[in-house]
């Protein structure tokens, strides 16, 4: 748990810095764009369309968790997903931050990045090797959103923090709840045996 706390504090500092320099970072990123990079972004953004992205990420996560044959991980993932989606929506409504591009056809609530929260919600439930692969792919996907002008860097950092840390809290809470229920059942069995 100490490692997670250190990661959280570092992420919080990075988030604070990026919030201060978001406009400068966005301007710098605009200068980096090239025709080749724009073509790559078009392909990535096709995959990231809401109607494609969310079912793929959630379906793939559930499939990989089913392969692990761990019902607790699946239950924790689904509970985490529900909480993360609700928190993301509430933050978008509360913050109402416009997107860097200001594109009128997009939902204008940029903070935090919903795509980022969803993809990072899967991370805590995977084992080490898969976690690293998922993290690398996730970073490519979410940074593409920054390069495409759909989010500020702080939007995706906040989304990553929500998506990664909320599931850890929920899993910890659910594990304690399950442990407490096991202890109560054990005590009841013991009491029933003593009565007989």
Description:
With 196 residues, the protein is mostly helical. The protein contains seven helices and no strands. The mean pLDDT is 84.
Summed up:
The protein is an all-alpha fold and 196 residues long.
Low-confidence stretches: none
How would the global form be characterised? elongated
What would the average pLDDT be, to the nearest integer?
84
The overall strand count is: 0
How large is the count of helical segments? 7
Order of helices and strands: HHHHHHH
Number of domains: 1
Distance between the termini: 43 Å
Query: What kind of oligomer do you see?
Result: single chain
Helix content: over 70%
Radius of gyration: 20 Å
For the largest beta-sheet, the strand count, sense and barrel status come to: none
Give the SSE layout:
Blueprint (H helix, E strand, L loop, with lengths): L1 H31 L2 H13 L2 H19 L2 H25 L18 H8 L6 H20 L5 H43 L1
Helix pairs in contact: 1-7, 4-5, 4-7, 5-6, 5-7
Keywords for this entry:
196 residues, mainly alpha, 7 helices, 0% strand
């Amino acid at each position: 748990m100490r490692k997670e706390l250190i990661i959280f504090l570092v992420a919080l500092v990075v988030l604070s810095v990026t919030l201060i320099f978001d406009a400068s970072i966005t301007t710098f990123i605009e200068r980096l764009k090239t025709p080749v990079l724009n073509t790559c972004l078009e392909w990535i953004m096709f995959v990231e369309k809401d109607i494609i992205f969310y079912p793929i990420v959630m379906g793939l996560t559930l499939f990989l968790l089913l392969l692990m044959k761990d019902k607790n991980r699946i239950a924790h993932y689904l509970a985490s997903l529900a909480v993360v989606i609700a928190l993301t929506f509430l933050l978008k409504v509360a913050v109402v931050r416009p997107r860097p591009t200001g594109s009128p056809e997009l939902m204008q609530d940029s903070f935090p990045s919903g795509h980022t929260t969803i993809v990072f919600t899967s991370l805590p439930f995977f084992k080490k090797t898969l976690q690293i692969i998922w993290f690398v792919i996730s970073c490519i996907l979410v940074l593409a959103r920054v390069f495409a002008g759909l989010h500020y860097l702080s939007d995706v950092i906040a989304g990553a923090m929500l998506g990664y840390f909320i599931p850890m809290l929920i899993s910890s809470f659910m594990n304690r709840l399950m442990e407490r229920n096991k202890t109560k059942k054990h005590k009841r069995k013991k009491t029933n045996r003593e009565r007989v």
